[in-house]
Amino acid sequence: MVQTPSRTPRLNTSGLRRDLELLEVLATPEALRLGGLGVSRVAEITGRDKGQISRTLATLAETGFVSRDPENAKYVLGFQLYALAARTREARLVEQAGQFLRRVANRTHETAHLCVLRGGNVLTLKSEMSNQAFRGIGWEGVSVPALRTSSGRALISDWTKEELRDWYNEHSADALVTKRELLNGIQGENEALGALPDAKRSKINTFDDLLQEITNIRRQGYAVVDEEFEMGLVGASAPIRDSSNRIVGVINLSAPKTRIAPVLDQVGIVVREVSEEFSRHLGATASLKAASSPAGQSRSPQQ
């Protein structure tokens, strides 16, 4: 009988493994608490040579996977990691969103959209057309100002007051996209969209207005707009949460006011119910009302 020799785990000393080890160190609670770690501390934790650590971190910094503070020489995880994580998360959202968007489209007979935040704008990643008579515009790949849309407001509805203030100060003056930009991006130059409303039509003209709107969204679990982005257009949006209970996207429905204005809140409830189903599918355990609070976790509004 041939006896199979016992195997001991092989120590992986490849360069990639060593690089990943440094990224893991910079993701530890100590690194996050101290706002980064210096070369000496990283070398101490890993048991590796300081010169080697310094060279590796410098290379990672060149590619954006880590970032070095020139004042205190500490290293933190870099923008490139967060960008990759965001794209991975959004790819999963797009892949799995179809069945949930179809539920909204079938229940409302209107087109449903999957949207995410991009700074001060909302980007539509996927649209699902209704198979009924009423069909809307596909907005995939189109970016519009967040503050005047139900989707934009729903996307920031779990932020803290401080985060909301910083975001509002940066983006409240963002100009509305022009009709020509919308035409080029959605329908083609020969078709017309409704007139863009002036600022007086918006419910949000001050930071206090935004706080009140966020309170309303948290209370009812969805956001609505009535001709604030485009004359004759109304919409409803509800947030999608991942396994960390943080908002990672929204389901949005926008349609002509003449069609859904009388039942806009009912539409909002439908969107909320399906968004909560999607959230549970992604591992979320809390609703918007339960998970949102002014003392919620801070986050960087990169999306």
From TrEMBL:
Domain HTH iclR-type, chain residue ranges per copy = 13-79
Name the chain's protein: DNA-binding IclR family transcriptional regulator
Keywords on record: DNA-binding, Transcription, Transcription regulation
Q: What residues does the IclR-ED domain cover?
A: 80-284
Source superkingdom: Bacteria
Q: Which GO terms describe its molecular function?
A: DNA binding; DNA-binding transcription factor activity
- GO BP field: negative regulation of DNA-templated transcription
List the Pfam families: HTH_IclR (PF09339), IclR_C (PF01614)
What InterPro entries is this protein classified in? GAF-like_dom_sf (IPR029016), HTH_MetabolicPath_Reg (IPR050707), Tscrpt_reg_IclR_C (IPR014757), Tscrpt_reg_IclR_N (IPR005471), WH-like_DNA-bd_sf (IPR036388), WH_DNA-bd_sf (IPR036390)
